[in-house]
Amino acid sequence: MAAILTSLRNTVIAGFVLALVLLLMYVNFGNSLDLGFWTFMVRWAHVLCGVMWIGLLWYFNFVQIPSMPKIPDEQKPAIGKVIAPEALFWFRWGAMGTIVFGIILAHMNGYLVDAFTLGAAQGFDVPKDIAIGIGMWLGTIMWFNVWFIIWPNQKIALGLVDAPADKKPAAARTAMLFSRTNTLLSIPMLFAMVSAQNIY
Question: Can you state the percent helix, strand and coil of the chain, rounding each to 5?
């Protein structure tokens, strides 16, 4: 067991193997791999990516940013040069996977246009379309912030790209403010998406 748990790669592989066992149990019980199943698989991928994305967003905002002033200056390069770039890699690709699988899922379920238009075609009279649409728009804004504001500014702040040293504090502040914006938006976004699945 230690060989699995001491390696992240092996741990993740073991997790997917266990999920495959659950899939085989599903098939063994006489279920088919129909459209409903594939819709579920896309939803599962959407949720997996979303957990990665929002988990790291909350790590940055609840742990890393508040802890930075407490870290001695000589230890801060370990965060900026090692931990933050790695976390930002998974953060931005988690965001990308979440939005891509979310769009595919909305299309497979037949509500992509209705959700993105907040149910305009039905006269804004379908609460589920409005709820999931609000969630999708908030998620889209958050995805945009990650790829086009947070990441470009983090590259400057962390020195991953050539930029004048006097630009780093402003870039770090911009990245932090938009990360906080995403934290704020994540709460109603999750409410809207979960409500569309459970109360409408």
Answer: 85, 0, 15
Rounded Cα distance, 176 and 126, in Å = 36
In angstroms, how far is the first alpha carbon of the chain from the final one? Answer: 44
Judge whether 102 and 116 are in contact, CB under 8 Å. no
Tens-digit pLDDT profile for residues 135-163: 999 999 999 999 999 999 999 999 999 99
Q: How many CA atoms lie within 13 A of 64 on its CB side?
A: 19
Instruction: Please name the residue that has the structure tokens 């709460």.
Output: 187
The residue ranges of every structural domain in the chain are 1-31, 33-198
pTM over 0.90: yes
The rounded distance, in Å, linking the Cα atoms of 199 and 194 is: 8
Contacts for 102 with CB less than 8 Å, ≥ 6 apart: 46, 50, 136, 139
Per-residue b or e along 123-146, where b marks 16 or more CB atoms closer than 10 Å to that residue's CB: eeebebbbbbbbbbbbbeebbebb
